[in-house]
């Protein structure tokens, strides 16, 4: 009997992916992720800087056509919470930072990022047999939840302040052919961007942008789009893979795990440039990179931030299919991760500034 694999077959660096996903970085508090990005890119780019919002921009100067610029964006933040109140008994009340489904939050472990250090806690959940039928059938709201730190009120008041951020506590594991954990949205795409940056020798100038506050309205990319004026903008983000039992209608799957990188045609914030996504398809076919097409009915990515803030820009996006998005068990297929790295690197290495993206 064969033993289960502890690491995936991925071509890329699993240890880095695990570090990125297990690290914490709620919107506006991406410091730990920013440090990893700067460390990983320091020796492979010509310039690296951080703006006032916390976006990291790492630039590789083009070898042949440096005046033609491409921006590639992936966001650093994960959905989380902010403490709004500390009760006299020592329980924490929360406000959401990003789009949570409160049904998945009860009885989860969390990390409170206090000024004196991280504190582990749990989101409380009363035993179902002590609840009335009305209570069992009620719909949770984030404001109804509370964090229990296992300490008395006086101690908690000394440790935690209003405004401290809270993130989910979860490790990253290999589950068959998938990698699962918290914050795969969007750390798996940030990972893909970092890995691609290490592989390319571009003819054009490429700005690798690790953005902030995407989960609360694409805020980092919108601000970055004012400072950068690229000729082409590409975003990396996860997309829905509803290839699970609750969705028997395959037309609602959006993407499927194991079928390759997803080339975005549209989402709720952007319709990508047809010439850009057709070139991506051509590159994928020429290089024999597994890919699929994505039409996402709702949601948005950093692509729209570039398109909306610095005028009319040709934009495109590559997505990693993800099951169980915005939970602590988000799952991506290792082959799709590899395909995303391969496709991004191939697109950047074959961009010469001469492709016509005008419509």
Task: Describe the structure in brief.
The chain has 359 residues and is an alpha+beta fold. It has helices at residues 14-22, 31-41, 133-137, 153-159, 184-197, 219-227, 274-286, 302-309, 334-349, and strands at 47-50, 56-60, 65-75, 80-86, 91-97, 109-114, 117-123, 147-148, 165-168, 173-175, 178-181, 204-211, 232-240, 261-266, 291-295, 315-322, 330-333. The longest helix is centred in the C-terminal third of the chain and has 16 residues, at 334-349.
Keywords:
about 350 residues, Aminopeptidase, Elongation Factor Tu (Ef-tu), domain 3, eight-stranded mixed β-sheet, six-stranded antiparallel beta barrel, 17 strands, about 30% strand, aminopeptidase activity, Peptidase M42, aminopeptidase, hydrolase
The backbone outline, from C-alpha atoms, is: globular
> Biggest β-sheet, characterized?
8 strands, mixed
CATH class of the largest domain reads Alpha Beta
Mean pLDDT: 91
CATH architecture of the largest domain: 3-Layer(aba) Sandwich
Instruction: Count up the domains.
Output: 2
SSE series: HHEEEEEEEHEHEEEHEHEEHEHEEH
In DSSP terms (H or I, runs of 4 or more residues), the helix count works out at: 9
Uncertain segments are none
Question: Helical amount among residues, as a percent range?
Answer: 25-40%
At CATH level 3, the topology of the largest domain is Aminopeptidase
